[in-house]
Design a protein that fits this description.
- Keywords: Acyltransferase, Transferase.
- Helices cover about 35% and strands about 35% of the residues.
- It is an alpha+beta fold.
- It has a single domain, classed as Gcn5-related N-acetyltransferase (GNAT) (Aminopeptidase).
- Strand 4, helix 5 and strand 5 form a beta-alpha-beta unit.
């Protein structure tokens, strides 16, 4: 197994701050600020255990060789649906980590949380993120203009959806996830 995923906590905030201090990473995060606000990140990570306990969001710190390299999360949970998102340090891009971690969290969403569908989205200029989603079986719904906090402008966002039934048909993914979830 290459990745270890574990519920994120306040202890992960410093590493997240370091990762989001890279413009190449943060420009792709619609809701993040740039430069990052350390106190805001610390408060957000400190709230993760409460969100988990309440069933509001499930956020996983992704580790490779004992080092946090990113985060994958499931949030905006309502009416048997949630939204999956992910971000990774730039040094880990192009190595399949996002797909590996997202696969594990999609499995978690459908088998453990019991969701029936997932949403996701990415900036239109982030084609690598789109490849991750389509590899998982997400289908493009549309493209809409959305405000981007990190960029301070409106971006074109590609929005996707994945139904549990569609994912279950892709049984090869159920057998191929290498991420270990703790």
């Amino acid at each position: 197994m290459r990745l270890v995923l574990r519920p994120s906590s306040g202890a992960d905030a410093q590493r997240a701050f370091e990762i989001q201090s890279n413009w190449a990473v943060t420009q792709m995060l619609r809701m993040a600020s740039f430069p990052p606000d350390r106190a805001e990140i610390e408060a957000w990570f400190a709230d993760h255990p409460r969100e988990w306990a309440a069933g509001e969001a499930y956020r996983f710190a992704a580790f490779f060789d004992g080092r946090m390299i990113g985060l994958v999360d499931l949030d905006e949970i309502a009416d048997d649906e949630g939204e999956i998102g992910y971000w990774f340090e730039q040094a880990s891009w192009g190595q399949g980590f996002a797909a590996e971690a997202a696969t594990a969290v999609v499995l978690f969403a459908f088998s453990e949380v019991g969701l029936q569908s997932l949403r996701s989205g990415h900036a239109a200029d982030n084609v690598a993120s789109g490849r991750v989603l389509t590899k998982l079986g997400f289908r493009l719904l549309d493209q809409v203009e959305r405000p981007s906090r990190s960029r301070g402008e409106t971006i074109l966002q590609c929005r996707y959806r994945l139904a549990r039934a569609d994912f279950a048909e892709r049984d090869r993914l159920f057998d191929k996830t290498d991420a270990q979830t703790l």
